[in-house]
């Protein structure tokens, strides 16, 4: 039975969070003399002299409408990377606890674990890029606090079997983090709809991919009230700046544009796969539910260097476990995809 107090670090249980000036006052005032801001304004057309809402409530209200999740179940971070780091700092004791990773997967899980001095147990995916559920369950011990599952997975692009993730949720008394950065490009149902069913579920999403806001650095975590309360207690007081909040809120009004882009990406993905399959140095293109494809080739490094010489940048994943010989290629605009194919036709 999951109990957050069994995995929460003792120092976090006793942590008194920083109380900002804006935390202590609710509502509107005509004179603000509480936060040592510059009352004269900013040397910019847009005024940023006041600290932003520390809990980003207007953005969360809009996300609540879109996602169908109460604002109390939403955490916003400086990219999903901040949410990942806060989960480590909240629930994992340095030098004592461990987490389970399932490579090949998103590299920041390992980086955050190393930064926080948390041991890593690796349980590689199967050859068809699915979870080794029995291996994961056998690897769990009394010091295992977190399991990270990226679905659709980066760099492989495929969705992880839903039943396998649910098995982890029901069998593990720590947190299962399902990273859905690419969920907008997938027909797979989001695990957000299962938050009330699993108290140990954390779902990560982002505005960097389908929403086209990578430069603003706004990531989302969805979880139970008690997990979100812990994350809000640990985060810096003003972790999402005012410009990012305003622009994210503006962007979140344009769901039709985003949905249109998603459909175009999916169409371009299908076209690009067909075109790549005609090239003799392409050995395999793995199924993708993301805005990229993983392509196994006869000479990944040679192709990568050739493309760089022609001003085209893809990602060489050939040294990643289970991705030998593979390039990860993001789906671009039609003219970018066409340039990629025309250039590859000249590779010898």
How would you portray this structure in words?
- The chain is of the alpha/beta class.
- It folds into two domains: 4-20 and 53-253, Type I PLP-dependent aspartate aminotransferase-like (Major domain) (Aspartate Aminotransferase, domain 2, 3-Layer(aba) Sandwich); 256-344, Alpha-Beta Complex (Aspartate Aminotransferase, domain 1), CATH 3.90.1150.
- The protein has helices at 4-7, 10-13, 21-24, 57-67, 80-91, 108-115, 133-139, 162-171, 225-234, 242-251, 255-277, 300-309, 334-344; strands spanning 74-77, 98-101, 119-122, 144-150, 175-179, 201-206, 219-222, 282-285, 292-297, 315-316, 326-330.
- α5 (80-91) crosses α6 (108-115) and α11 runs parallel beside α13 (334-344).
- It is globular and about 70 Å long.
- The mean pLDDT is 97.
- Homodimer.
- The modification N6-(pyridoxal phosphate)lysine is found at residue 209.
- Its EC number is 2.6.1.9.
